[in-house]
Design goal:
alpha+beta, 5-stranded mixed sheet
């Protein structure tokens, strides 16, 4: 029987390599590409970081990093309004700087100038977006709670005009949702227009007409249809809809949407404006579609990449035809300052190792789109690295690596080698996962070299492997 197999990156102790399922395409071997170390999810003083973009780039270059993806916040802003006209009678606060506050053009110009000054690197201006939140409590008489603000999505590859028009709360005026929001405006306009008929009368009828007219008019202005987002922060949780909206917008405008820190344990933060309350939201990985990747490795907590969890469920769904495309696992450093983690944070604690034809923006996007990368997390000179990772057909005619796919008959061979960056011998344990199930565990000392022929029964015509 002819089968189709996909290779998904792998996670190894403190390092991970993701090779995700992808449509079968022409073979590209690891040997024809060169590896470049990169960092994703980096903040500067354009938002919540302490260092300037130039200082971040200098530290990255010193650490041997070749690719830096800046992801400063679009807005760090929340609002509370007094009922019933919560948009007109509102107080809004920026509790941290942000790209929209400082200037989108300024942000892009700064990063692009850094790119021109550092031709031996790839430096990308991207955005960390908070598309939605909802409020509870009352800042006047009690505590103000801002729910789900930390449900963030990284937006990579958008041009500056697309960034300026992001469909997020408090991003100025927009006509994008005019027809969606117009019915709410009409609900107020109808009684206001009807009240005009009462104005020629005398006595209480006329006064009632004035009251209805002004309330209706103010309500129509409050509910105007020129908002930047179709969602209100005063109607409670909106589920996955606000996030799917920005994912679709990013996809339509040629960018890539990546979920950020969806498993983070940082569920409560105090700000000048109120409490940020965002529990882990791993369920968003299966409740949204068309995003490109998620942070399979994060600084404080990650669960979705463990065998049989959210990532595997998504990939199995993709191969069964219920998901439109595969998703990849990247490493999110979420760098703000070296003062984090009690002064132990470094800009390269979590690296993404990309396999690219050349060191260029286009080659980086191709590697990211096609899953040609793995992730390495480490805090000592002996951090793990993947020397190679491949899938070979039974007779050895065809071979693929990260993100690739093969059609073949007979049992395939999975080959990989794990070593340490400084060449020391370290114990390592790796689990080979197929369709969410661990089918073999390897243990040894680096450099650990494995050539494994999978003779386990295969019940699927289309399936994937990944290494954890």
């Amino acid at each position: 029987m002819m089968r189709t197999c996909f290779l998904i990156p792998c996670l190894l102790a403190m390092a991970l390599t993701w090779a995700a399922p992808a449509p079968a395409r022409g073979a590209t071997t690891e040997g024809s590409l060169k590896s470049y170390r990169g960092i994703i999810h980096v903040h500067s003083n354009f938002s919540t970081g302490e260092l300037s973009p130039a200082e971040v780039v200098a530290k990255a270059k010193k650490a041997g990093i070749k690719i830096v993806v800046f992801t400063d916040h679009d807005l760090v802003r929340a609002s509370w309004g007094l009922p019933p006209f919560r948009n007109l009678l509102s107080y809004t606060m920026d509790f941290k700087p942000s790209v929209f506050q400082i200037g989108v053009d300024n942000y892009f110009d700064t990063i692009e100038n850094l790119q021109s000054e550092n031709s031996d690197m790839v430096i990308i201006p991207a955005i960390e977006s908070a598309p939605f939140y909802y409020v509870s409590g009352n800042p006047i008489f009690g505590e103000m709670n801002i729910h789900d603000w930390r449900r963030h999505i990284l937006l990579i590859g958008l041009g500056r005009e697309a960034v300026k028009n992001l469909p997020v709360l408090h991003n100025g005026m927009s006509s994008r949702y005019f027809w969606t929001l117009l019915p709410g405006t009409i609900l107020y306009l109808v009684p206001a227009l009807f009240a005009i008929v009462l104005l020629p009368f005398r006595g209480w009828v006329r006064w009632a007409g004035f009251i209805v007219f002004f309330v209706g008019l103010i309500g129509a202005i409050d509910a105007h249809p020129f908002k930047s987002s179709p969602f209100s922060p005063y109607l409670g949780s909106q589920g996955a809809r606000p996030y799917q909206e920005i994912i679709n917008y990013t996809d339509t405008n040629g960018g890539l949407a990546l979920w950020a820190h969806q498993g983070s344990l940082l569920s409560k933060q105090k700000t000048k404006f109120g409490n940020l309350l965002t529990p882990p939201h791993v369920e968003m990985l299966t409740e949204t579609v068309n995003y490109h990747a998620f942070d399979a490795i994060y600084e404080d907590n990650y669960t979705a990449s463990k065998p049989g969890r959210a990532w595997d469920k998504y990939l199995v769904g993709y191969l069964k035809g219920v998901r439109p495309k595969p998703i990849w696992g990247y490493g999110g450093i979420d760098f703000h300052s070296e003062n984090e983690l009690r002064g132990k944070k470094r800009v390269n604690d979590i690296e993404n190792v990309f396999y690219m034809e050349s060191l260029s923006n286009d080659a980086f996007y191709r590697a990211l789109v096609n899953g040609r990368f793995y992730v390495s997390r480490g805090y000592t000179p002996a951090r793990l690295q993947m020397d190679y990772f491949s899938l070979t057909s039974a007779k050895g005619q065809n071979s693929e690596t990260y993100g690739g796919g093969l059609r073949f008959k007979g049992p395939p061979q999975i080959s990989f080698q794990v070593s340490t960056r400084n060449g020391t011998a370290e114990k390592v344990k790796a689990q080979l996962i197929r369709m969410g199930l661990v089918i073999h565990t390897f243990e040894g000392v680096t450099p650990l070299k494995i050539d494994f022929v999978d003779r386990n029964p295969i019940d699927h015509k289309r399936f994937y492997y990944r290494l954890d």
